[in-house]
User: Fold this.
Amino acid sequence: MDILVTAIKMVGGLVLLIYGMNMLSTNLKKIAGEKLKLILKKATDNIFKGIITGIVITVAVQSSAVVTVMVVGFVNAEILKLRNAIPIIMGANIGTTITAQILRLASLEGNSIFTLLSPTVLASIFIIIGFILLEFKKKKKMKDIGQLLIGIGLLFTGLMTMVNMASGFSQLPILSQILSKFSNPILGILVGAVVTAIVQSSAATIGILQAISQAGIITYASTIPIILGQNIGTCFTSVLSSIGTSKNAKRVAAVHLLFNLIGSIIFMIVIYTYQAIVGFSFWNDTIDMGGIANFHLIFNLVSTILLLPCIGLLEKLATLAVPDKKNNDEEEEDTSEYLTILNVLDERITNIPSVAISNSQMVISKMAELSDKNLTRTMKLIQKFDVEKFEHIQEREDTIDKMDVTVANFLVKIGNLELTEQENKTVTTLLKTGSEFEKIGDYAYKVAKLIENMNDKELKFSEDATKELNVIYNIVKDILNRTIETSQNKSMSNVIDIQALKEILEMYREKFKKQHIERLKLTKCSVDTGIAFIEIINAYEKITDHCLNIIIETVNHSSEEKYITKHEYLNILYAKEGEKLKERFNTFTHKYETLLEDNKLCIQ
Assistant:
């Protein structure tokens, strides 16, 4: 019965340890999350900066797996190159060893000089301070700090519970027999890897090992293989996260695995060769918490030093592990490549709002890019219908729809978290902007369908009608390009040009409709082509309406004033920038009239 009670208490200590670690991690992300994206973006200057960045962020979020997921997202979005991501992963491996160094403070118990640093005392101090901040401070940031401190306190409490209970097992002969089997390096590595893969936290499994070590029943011989295995097992999370992602994202996970696998093989060869020839004097001695923490640190530090000059080789090995597919059809690659970016919307990063929001922006930017591509293809279809091009437009439209649903659901989840006022505003803007780009894609596809129907009926536009549609297309394309730039860069420099172009579009729409009616009267065009002509112009105009909605959302996001409607936005714009609008209108009118006369309009 005593053994059962001890086992239950030990499991309870493990739960407290993991819960405290998660609480610490979650609140560190809340406090430091806004800066994580900026830190990662600045990490591309040089190798050493990348390593330091990996260490700092991993210490901040207490999870090398989360850092790997973040890096996967940035590589997938082409913010980071694979080569620049490798030093960050190396740094993340070093950063994850800090937790073990903190936990080793338990070995300072009884030392009068460090009594205040012992986990038992620190646990009480952190929990008391955390409770005060949580209950008596009104600011959200102070409450987050309070929860963070309570998390540290629970982590230490869980650890000490495990340490105290582990001593109860030290006298069991069967336990000593089981642990002695781990001195077999292959078995030890397998156990370390499997347990870490299941728990999905090397910090937690190292903590468990440190707690058991306090019972004085494990040796260096049995522990070293387990630690090596834990470093391999921690790659399971990044490998799992990379399933279904782009090639480069998979390569990030491959680098993570290769780094720990190569490092473990090198250590195994050196350690066991030396042990066989010379022998370590401490090999069969019991290992303590400090010894575990130190070996864990030494392994990751030495592996980084050894493999640092081999970053190019790691990149090549990752490329061999995840080879490029041979595909000469650029159109065919569009859909498959774009869909992979949805994997950056990983639920594990929703508790880092700034990163989750940034990843959502990446997806919406790709939606905008796809909508723009489909718009360009519609004009090519008008000039010459091609079944394959139409099918690619259809595939991209399906992709845009999938992306819209996925990112909208992800943003709703983020919106239900505790966010800052600015983060809430950004989430709302992204939800609306994503929906607008999806509608732009719908209208581009509608144009393609109209042209397909004409092709089925063997109908064609006249030379004049094609020329006029080309004018409308070029204006719409200009508006969409400026809208995407404004949406992504939050720069207001384009808003006057966009409105001036919309006015020109309305002018040409009326002009070309009248000219088309004249062609109908002269039987230069059929009734069916006349209807299609008007519907295509209307669809193009709808695209610019959604562009204007995106501009207004962007203006509202950038402004600290109250939310303004479309009507209010246009009134303000004409009141403040009326003269400049007239000037830009005249400039663009001259540009398009000249191009129209010279017949130099082209597909951009």
